[in-house]
Design goal:
Helix content is 68%, strand content 0%. It is mainly α. The radius of gyration is 20 Å and the shape is elongated.
């Protein structure tokens, strides 16, 4: 009787080749193929966290928002350090696109608790609040995003549009 206690053989994946193939397919707009390419990456690979962020992005591009939320939640349960801010962002965008604003707010508040200086989390919070008609709170979120990154143009545009709609031209 012979037992083999050797480790599972994991095939070599050339990350440069994967990156090239994924870039080519995404440039062609073939996001399904891009996702298939990313699925070749082993969960124990050091770039797996970054790949999951990309997967959630391409799932959103395909309007597969629920799957994007699942990927983001999986990422948030992992130990990916500062990548978690991106998981919070992608999760909130997917939830906003599903008009699940309360869940988006929860995801954003959780992200802001961990990354209070992340201007994109504050910007997305403003977007979610604006969609809910919570204009004053949205304005404050956009202002915070601007303070954190005065070079992020989208926050200025959203704030300007809101103030214009509210006839607050002087602000």
């Amino acid at each position: 009787c012979f037992f083999n206690f050797a480790q599972e053989k994991i095939p070599f994946i050339d990350i440069e080749e994967i990156t090239l193939l994924a870039t080519e397919s995404s440039e062609k707009g073939d996001f399904e193929k891009t996702l298939e390419i990313f699925n070749r990456i082993n969960k124990n690979d050091s770039i797996f966290g970054s790949v999951m962020i990309s997967k959630s992005y391409y799932l959103m591009a395909l309007k597969k928002y629920e799957e994007a939320v699942k990927i983001a939640n999986t990422g948030l349960k992992g130990n990916y350090g500062d990548l978690n801010a991106s998981f919070h962002l992608n999760k909130s965008v997917a939830l906003i696109n599903q008009k699940k604003y309360n869940e988006a707010d929860e995801a954003l508040n959780e992200g802001i608790k961990s990354y209070p200086k992340n201007n994109l989390l504050w910007y997305n919070k403003g977007v979610s609040l604006e969609y809910q008609g919570k204009i004053e709170q949205a304005i404050e979120a956009y202002k915070t995003a601007i303070v954190l990154n005065p070079f992020y143009k989208k926050a200025f545009l959203q704030l300007g549009n809101l103030c214009y709609k509210q006839e607050r031209i002087s602000q």
